[in-house]
Amino acid sequence: xxxxxxxxxxxxxxxxxxxxxxxxxxxxxxxxxxxxxxxxxxxxxxxxxxxxxxxxxxxxxxxxxxxxxxxxxxxxxxxxxxxxxxxxxxxxxxxxxxxxxxxxxxxxxxxxxxxxxxxxxxxxxxxxxxxxxxxxxxxxxxxxxxx
Length: 147
Fold this sequence. Notes:
Blueprint: H1 13-24, E1 30-31, H2 32-43, H3 48-60, E2 64-67, E3 70-73, E4 105-113, E5 119-129, H4 137-143
Antiparallel strand pairs: 1-3, 2-3, 4-5
Helix pairs in contact: 1-2
């Protein structure tokens, strides 16, 4: 007796969406455009209206989690960000105020310095909305949780 080890081909749109998200293994989740591209390449599926409805229903039914414009499969493990998107954080001095959270306006003083000691930028006060994409990703990641 021969048992097939091939995975079943997803039948419903939501099952195809879940397969696409899992195949992409993105730490941030998968955008609708990335999912659509995957569905077209892997399943020859191109119904944008049905995809939009499946994403909306998937979120409403708790099968998907939407974060901004990206989607993740509910209950799946988190994928690790690639090395180029990781930030090493060293707390030099910890404050006593509340931890900075996404959406907060934060005010920082900083000095941008190269390995040779030369300063390329600095500011006594600089404010931005945390997680708003107004600054380099390292700041949005590194400042989150600071006190």
